[in-house]
């Protein structure tokens, strides 16, 4: 029996509709009954920051997110501060150590600012953990109920690449602002006049960078442990420039809300961007988060005004006759895209518009992508070469090429 894909409470609260979401992130119907590890969607992306107090303000002022919940010394959490921010159906949690002996201090020393937990919403935590254990995954948190006056959350966690984990959350019996231990919190920050209400609506995919030779192991992990399906495959020459190369495969959960491209470096003349990431992150980790918007032009203009920096795209990209022919008709004139450096890719299903930021923190590790899908379920394969050449120019400026 094929189960109809429904909106999550977060998506309903964000005012999204199903057709819009299918377009925005490529949501599909699938048979949940045959899924050994059913995943509904994203629950939260948890970051470690060297200064969560300031990072939380950055995500509000630069990225237009809203502060909704908080935990810290004032609420009885003496170890760290934790800020919960939302944009549309996306939830970010930014954690920073207060206690000098907090485990977050060592994590941050090693990895810098980055993603520590890609938490997923699941309807049955115990079923997922039983499957994970059967399939040989490492359970880092046994299933437990955590409760407060807002209800009960069933929660557990498994390990994935590097020191990243997937917390599995069933919040169907909970109506608090995030998790027990958090209080509702608002900010006095007021966005600039004229800025769109939200700069992005949903999370499309999160890319994991893994060590040389490990990509297929992690693809197999997501297939075997979590029942994820393989989406698209890019190998070898597809993503090679003169200097660097990488291999990438994409896995997705049954309804395709959760998509994980997995990259590994490939042998090339010089150090690839994946090698640079692995060196500065000290191992495997989340490389970029792609956030979905229905209006990439308005979003990029607002982000630029807020000080967010993007990778440059050379004019030659837009003037290339072959590329122009391949792109065909898109919803805005190519000149509008060119003036903003927005990339276009097309496949048999449609097209997508995308642009990439520079690294968000001090280390050349985590960055964001903005994506506006129009039928295409791809990841911008046709742009990889132009994109990587842009990344290499930045890498060269940092002395890491
Ligand atoms: Fe991407």
From TrEMBL:
The keyword rRNA-binding does not apply. It is an enzyme of class 1 (oxidoreductase). Binds 1 Fe cation per subunit. Keywords: Dioxygenase, Iron, Metal-binding, Oxidoreductase, Pyruvate, Repeat. SUPFAM superfamilies: Glyoxalase/Bleomycin resistance protein/Dihydroxybiphenyl dioxygenase. Its EC number is 1.13.11.27. Transmembrane segments: none annotated. Fe cation binds at residues 205, 288, 369. Residues 41-171, 202-358 form the VOC domain. GO terms for biological process: L-tyrosine catabolic process. The keyword Nucleotidyltransferase does not apply. Its cofactor is Fe cation. Belongs to the 4HPPD family. This is 4-hydroxyphenylpyruvate dioxygenase. It comes from Flexivirga caeni. The lineage of its organism: Bacteria, Bacillati, Actinomycetota, Actinomycetes, Micrococcales. The gene is hppD.
């Amino acid at each position: 029996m094929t189960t109809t894909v429904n909106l999550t409470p977060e998506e309903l609260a964000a005012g999204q509709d199903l057709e819009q979401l299918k377009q925005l992130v490529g949501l599909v119907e699938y048979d949940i009954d045959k899924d050994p590890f059913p995943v509904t969607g994203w629950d939260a992306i948890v970051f470690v920051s060297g200064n969560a107090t300031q990072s939380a303000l950055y995500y509000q002022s630069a990225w237009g997110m809203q502060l909704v919940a908080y935990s810290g010394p004032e609420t009885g959490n003496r170890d760290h501060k934790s800020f919960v921010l939302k944009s549309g159906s996306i939830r970010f949690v930014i954690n920073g150590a207060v206690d000098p002996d907090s485990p977050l201090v060592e994590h941050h020393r090693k990895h810098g600012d980055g993603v520590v937990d890609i938490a997923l919403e699941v309807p049955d935590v115990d079923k997922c953990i039983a499957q994970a254990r059967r399939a040989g995954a490492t359970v880092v948190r046994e299933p437990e109920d955590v409760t407060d006056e807002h209800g009960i959350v069933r929660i557990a966690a498994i390990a994935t690449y590097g020191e990243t984990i997937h917390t599995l959350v069933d919040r169907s019996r909970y109506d608090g602002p995030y998790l027990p231990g958090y209080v509702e919190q608002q900010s006095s920050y007021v966005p600039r006049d004229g800025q769109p209400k939200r700069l992005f609506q949903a999370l499309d995919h999160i890319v994991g960078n893994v060590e040389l030779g490990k990509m297929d192991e992690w693809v197999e992990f997501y297939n075997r442990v979590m029942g994820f399906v393989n989406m698209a495959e890019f190998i070898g020459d597809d993503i090679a420039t003169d200097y660097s190369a990488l291999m990438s495969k994409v896995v997705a959960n049954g309804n395709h809300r959760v998509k994980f491209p997995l990259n590994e470096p490939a042998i090339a003349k010089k150090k690839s961007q994946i090698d640079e990431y692995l060196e500065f992150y000290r191992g495997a980790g989340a490389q970029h988060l792609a956030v979905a918007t229905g209006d990439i032009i308005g979003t990029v203009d607002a982000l630029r005004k807020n000080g967010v920096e993007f990778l440059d795209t050379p004019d030659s990209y837009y003037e290339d006759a072959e590329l122009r022919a391949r792109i065909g008709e898109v919803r805005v004139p190519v000149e509008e895209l060119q003036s903003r450096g927005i990339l276009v890719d097309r496949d048999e299903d449609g097209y997508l518009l995308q642009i990439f930021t520079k690294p968000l923190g001090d280390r050349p590790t985590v960055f964001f992508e903005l994506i506006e899908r129009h039928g295409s379920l791809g990841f911008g394969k046709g742009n990889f070469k132009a994109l990587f050449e842009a990344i290499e120019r930045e890498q060269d400026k940092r002395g890491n090429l």
